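pls design
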């Protein structure tokens, strides 16, 4: 049996650490506050936003919800963000993605003040990550680094293969692994002989967005596999990008879906909010 990397337990540990820190902040008059903006009522976004608010409440972070109608204009949304940028009582600003099609996502991200960019999506945050300066880091990849570290899995000198090159996961993940002195390869939809590349990995991070695509043919014996995917299988059960049962036969450690990477994303968002308030 491989080591099952318990994201639920590790995220709880992080949230409890943050809860203690926030209690100390309250004692000295600092009240961490996150503004959560949602435009429209995308069902998946509603679930994510609800979970973020719940995590804030657990830790003692104030959350201010802005639920805007689908017809909200880009100008109106930017005006709200600018107001929150200059509100000293708000430490973090999060715009739940996706936004409706008539709104330019990049323009919205760029209108958030980098010091309140708790999602780590602003070009300034991404630039800081790339040059090794301090700044907010995208929550899912930051959570994966915590999963590895808190499971005593060494990254330094390891062959790390990331499948997926999105701005939210694949690219920042690769930079973070590099920062930890891993040897990093990024694969994507145009990669030739994918299995040949992924079989080199000591640590394989899978963020392709295709249900149970990764079987043991893609994985080296004894590898560590991190599954970022989230889908429903034919029985409506949650599953990932990795065929968990199949791959489990040969790996040394693996994240389950649910209960692996998912809970870490919110824990790291909370971490970024506390960091924003600390500053
Ligand atoms: N939509 C899907 N994932 C995310 C995330 O991490 N942050 C935001 N703001 N929107 C998302």
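designed seq:
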């Amino acid at each position: 049996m491989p080591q099952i990397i318990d994201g639920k337990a590790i995220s709880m540990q992080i949230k409890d650490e943050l809860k203690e820190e926030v209690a100390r902040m309250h004692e000295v008059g600092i009240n961490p506050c996150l503004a959560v903006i949602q435009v429209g009522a995308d069902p998946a976004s509603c679930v994510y936003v609800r979970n973020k608010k719940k995590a804030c409440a657990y830790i003692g972070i104030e959350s201010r919800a802005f639920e805007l109608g689908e017809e909200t204009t880009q100008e109106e949304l930017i005006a709200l963000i600018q107001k929150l940028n200059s509100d000293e009582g708000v430490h973090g600003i999060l715009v739940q993605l996706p936004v409706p099609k008539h709104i330019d996502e990049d323009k919205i991200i760029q209108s958030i003040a980098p010091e309140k960019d708790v999602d780590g999506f602003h070009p300034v945050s991404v630039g800081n990550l790339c040059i090794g300066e301090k700044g907010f880091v995208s929550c899912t990849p930051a959570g994966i680094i915590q999963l590895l570290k808190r499971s005593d899995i060494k990254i330094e000198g390891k062959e790390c293969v990331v499948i997926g090159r999105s701005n939210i996961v694949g690219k920042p993940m690769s930079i973070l692994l590099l920062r930890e002195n891993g040897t990093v390869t990024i694969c994507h939809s145009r990669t030739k002989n994918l299995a040949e590349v992924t079989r080199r990995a000591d640590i394989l991070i899978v963020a392709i967005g295709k249900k149970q695509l990764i079987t043991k043919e893609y994985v080296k014996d004894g590898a560590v596999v991190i599954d970022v995917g989230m889908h429903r299988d034919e029985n409506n059960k949650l599953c990932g990008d990795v065929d968990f049962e199949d791959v489990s036969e040969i790996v040394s450690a693996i994240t389950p879906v649910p209960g692996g990477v998912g809970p870490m994303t919110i824990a790291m968002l909370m971490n970024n909010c506390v960091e924003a308030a600390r500053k």
